[in-house]
Amino acid sequence: MYGLGILKGFGVTALNAFRSPFTVEYPDRRVGLPGLARSAGINPLAFVLKRPKDALKAVLGLAKIPARSQQHSRFRGQDFTWYVERCTGCASCAKLCPLGIIKIVTDPSGRQTQEGEVYDIETFDIDLARCMACGICVEVCPYDALHMGSGFERARYGFPNLLITVDELKKAPKRPSTWFRPQLEERGYHPHKSGQADWRLVGRHERPTAGQLKRNWVDDRAK
Amino acid sequence: MTSSFLDNAFFRNIYCNLASSDSARCAGGGPFGDGLFPPGWEWFAFLVTAFLTVFVVINGALLGVNAYIWGERRLIGRIQGRPGPNRWGPFGLLTPVADLIKILTKEDIVPAAADRLLFFLAPFLIVVPVLLVFAVVPFGSSSWVADLNIGLLYVLAVLSVESFAPVMAGWGSQNRYAMFGALRAVALLVSYEIPMVLSLLGVLMIAGSLSLVDVVHAQSVPFILVQPLGFLVFFIGTVAEIQRAPFDLAEAESELVGGYHTDYSGIRWGLFQAGEFLATIAGAAIIVTVFLGGWRGPDFLPSHAWFFIKLTGVLVVMTWIRGTLPRLRIDQVTSFAWKGLLPLAALNVVLSALLSLIWPAPTNGELWIMVAINMTVAAAALIVLGQFGPKAGERPTPAPVSTLREATPGGGN
Amino acid sequence: MRTEPVTVNIGPHHPSTHGVFRLRVTFDGEVIVDVEPVFGYLHRGTEKLAEERTYVQFVTLTDRMDYVASMTNNQGFVLAVEKLAGITPSPRGVWLRMIAAELQRIASHLVGMGFFLQDLGAFATPLMYAMRERERILDLFEMLCGARITNSYMRPGGVFMDAPEDFWPAVNRFLDEMPGYVDEYESLISGNEIVLSRTKGVARVELDALINASISGPMLRAAGLAWDLRKKHPYEFYDRVEFDVPLAQESDNWARYIVRIQEMRESVKIVRQCVQQIEPGPIRPKEVPFLVRPPAGEVYSSIEGPKGELGYYIVSDGSIAPYRCKVRAPSYINLTLLKDMLVGWRVADMIVTFGSIDINMGEVDR
Fold first, then answer.
1. Looking at the partner chain, which of B83, B91, B321 has a beta carbon nearest the beta carbon of A23?
2. Which of B73, B157, B192, B331 could join B240 in a cystine, given CB atoms 3.0 to 4.6 angstroms apart?
3. Which ipTM value was assigned to this complex?
4. What is the pLDDT of residues B184-197, one digit of tens each?
5. What is the DSSP letter of B82?
6. Can you give the residue ranges of every domain in chain B?
7. Which domains are seen in chain C, by residue range?
8. Coil/strand/helix, residue A156
9. Shortest Cα distance from C117 to chain B (angstroms)?
10. Which chain C residue's Cα is nearest to A74?
11. Looking at A120-124, B47-51, B105-109, B201-205, which range is the least confident one?
């Protein structure tokens, strides 16, 4: 009969109206009393007794809780995690950025190590206004000094504020994304759940210690 | 004239408090003894009472629009798997207020080439006739503004004034998109007038009166059961007249950007939207009154509550339809009206005429027999008519020969 | 009564033109008499930029051509580079590429059909359901490569990073639920009489017109010709998985829609077989350097993208960047028949037909 297909469509729509929405609300989401109690960690009855004003707000539909981050550890964020202790100033990231947004100016009178020079970084500008978060700079860094960050709230109100300078890179919290860093994933690191990562623990190959260097370059050669 | 108004409890309460010296109509005085106004001022008391009644009804309608905007957006959101607006106020209840502030603070742009009078008048022609419909709808067992003895005719006449507005808006905008929308709207509105009127004839014959209050009183069995074909035709006709999905082709957002209200901004556009929502509520109110038994219901709830429950039900169904069905094309819309709804409405008129000839003043039992007869005839008619459903589309004009096939194999034309 | 045709500009700024696309249409009443498409509003000079970018850097640019189907864009380019440079990809990389490409095909068809129904006027409800499923696929992509849409997941020789352990249960969960969602989608739309009456028989185009215009992809398969590059010129490991090529005969809007729905089911089958057949191993041969230097020469290599045959013609002069890279974008070629499909139909059919060809302006304009 004409119209049966339309009626079947109504059934699908009605079924979906009773499913819970799949929207992820950001930055905070409205919750009712059960949700608020669950976020506080106590059951709803105890919540009503302990915090009656908040419970009233929840019942009236005015309570909000901050959104939980649901990213995977590999999420390529909009900021960068940079370890000055690991960086040698080779500027591979600047050379291979497809957009050419990294500007590195180094001071060659840096530290002299047994393997060669480590330059001092005077300028390390990343222009976030044009960064497309492709991660090639991270991919080519030979010393695992530059990692993708895991934040996405790097929006600012003016173009000059979108330039990440070396001071900001030095002071930023170190939450590297595990993108192109399988060693971080093997250690079970998650940028939002595991705290900050120390510079000694993020590399694929570690810098040799003084004892190893002596063994490689002095003792073995002397043989 | 005043006597039929005083059947209305709300009206009588206020009037008799103000002018209870009119002892022919008000039995006993109110809490103010002999009334606030001295005798001889009954006409003033009448004016004040009438103003207050109309004030309450119109504001109630507009608040209903507010609530309906919120309800529809939340319901369509849930149908689509998202929460709907829930930021402003608890559960998003202040969202219509936010919408209103946004609309009021937008710049009012009038196109330079526009016909100013038509451009100015069109939004009002959407809103005002619909507000007039609320004058005859009985909200409760003794609550209405006016009990016209030509109630149904008045409703249909007033709603057909709305057909002017899209043309005025489209022509006044001097814009091709707007004219497209306006012409589609006119074709739609004119096509659906006749099935709507015919479907109400059946109700008229069984209820015996055009007055909406009498129609509600005559529904010991709700007319949706007694007149299924009439209900179907009237419901679809109403959805088409108020230009909601699946009939919103005049303002088809994905084709014509806005149709006849493309060039409207600010509060003028707000009036179009308010008019559309008001028309939805008015149409739902008429459907509830004429087919669903109005304010009738078991006694454990007051009659106003039953009216609002049924109104909410009809509005939920209309929103559900809007969220589910895609849009029809203009030629499909007109062929649906003339070839689909008109035969059904005509069949309904003939059947109701026969039945009301057999049982001129039907009692409850006779109404149930009419229900059975009407249901079988409706089912049979729908099945038979469904066989003539639309076939695959045919190209209206023949296509030209493909330009690609004309190219020579050696390349270059 | 004398009437006069009117020319309307369905401008680049329009809710339903799938990007910035301009149509100058001449109407006689509501019937379309002439159509003149104007595009180029999204041209970004991708092919010129290719001359200055290394092959790996260009992978990030290929993402952004057809931005709803980045994985298949990557796949086409990477296969062309491998053919030119003579690189044999590692098997695990190939399986991961196939999984990513087929998931991307499902996502692209969901976007295409969601917006097709949005243009029909279904007030975004089927679109929201399609987006809900696409969100699951994009979450899978986030697990694989950290980004949802512009992935740049593939590299010459394989992919750049292996799938994490929580990827495989997530993929299996998705594969179990997806056919149910496609069924639900179909029961909402495919039996709906309004959809049927608006799409059946509309904008029919004959098979030889399609072949003459070198149309490919679901548009061609909706006319009855079983031309699918995954079967005719199998690349990667498509000859090791079993799947059908859905066909329809009528070649109208309805046929194009139903072919895409069926292709989604077939892609689910392919991903399931890939997940079963994938073998452990390196995801990329170790000897492939970051800066690939293919020998001087040229290559044309094409894959079956969700929108049609996506081809890359790369000319190399032995350096780290291509000398010329030309992209055969299927959406651009599929647009050629727009005038023949539209003339004689009504306004409402114009937008719907345009939606059923399922083009993406990023690819048309590059």
1. B83
2. B192
3. 0.84
4. 888 888 889 899 99
5. S
6. 5-56, 106-388
7. 61-313+347-365 (1.10.645.10)
8. coil
9. 7
10. C146
11. B47-51
